[in-house]
Amino acid sequence: MPISSLFRKEVLAMSAYKVADARGLIKLDAMENPYNWPEDIKTSWLKTLKDCPLNRYPDPEAKQLTETIKHLNRIPDQFDVLLGNGSDEIIQILLMALPSDACVVAPTPGFVMYKQVSQSLGLDYHGIPLLTDTFELDLPAMLAAILQYQPSVIFLAYPNNPTGNLFSEASIREILKVAKGLVVIDEAYSPFADASFMSSLPEHNNLLVMRTVSKLGLAGLRLGYIAGAPEIIEQLHKVRLPYNINSLTQISAHFALSNKTLFDQQTQHICTERTVIFNQLQALKAITAYPSAANFILFKTPANSANKIFESIKQQGILIKNLSSQAGPLTDCLRVTIGKPEENIAFLNALKNSLNQLI
Ligand SMILES: *Cc1c(COP(=O)(O)O)cnc(C)c1O
Q1: Which CATH topology does 3-30+261-358 take?
Q2: pTM score over 0.90
């Protein structure tokens, strides 16, 4: 009997999530904040770590950090919060708590982890195509999918990754009303968007709002959180592993979030640069750039040239993300994360060079 027969067939059919090697390259592929901390803040941070008892297990409930997160995110008092080792882990915890015949729905193109985790658990996943060109929700198709599949969970990234847009609020409210299952609004990019469903938690008993500190500027810590009704969060706590947020993350995240003005300034810079890059991409006749409420911009290259342009930009020392192989509406599409001004200039120059090479 081959060893592989020990594993579930859906696991055997999957491929692992691959992350590109960025060594030696300007990294504009993963929606990271390009800025580090000033020296004085680093020094204060290291002081908070000095007496961390690494011989002890972490606080299993991360009480202090949870309080800080509830306060800073204005999570209404009567709602509970679950922390995860990144919001990726929260997606996994939530899906692991479902019955094995449960169905999961999300618009496509969307965040790959919804599908990846659903498939690894053998759940029935359905991607519902967004409208072409605008990447807006196809509301009739979403409502039809809700009727047909009765999904236990619907994931809506707000703004959406990789398209960058905020879906229509009215459409989301309609989905919240019609869905009998849970609706997770994934606000990973909330620092860059002027819209949120956090204050709508009291209006819908099936609404969960998920966020992360990753895109804000703390991707290395691995910390995400989800807010919702206590009777939902209670079930998730049973599935999560006891010490999923390590001591260093708890202390560092509490410290960093207490220095919020620093992140607010960095976020401001990133949003300003987003406008600059968008306008410059728009000015290139060969490129179609899609409006973004996140810290990245999706753009379409001339037909059949995305791979060439991606490779040429990489040759010039800059790593972005090639989405063209995902086909469908992402055919010919590349995605660039907003970096520091000098990194963005380098990217735009590399893109222009690569377009000239095509002719
Ligand atoms: C990046 C991203 C996440 C994952 O964030 P982590 O907290 O780093 O795991 C979740 N959802 C969306 C839509 C993302 O783009």
Answers
A1: Aspartate Aminotransferase, domain 1 (3.90.1150)
A2: yes
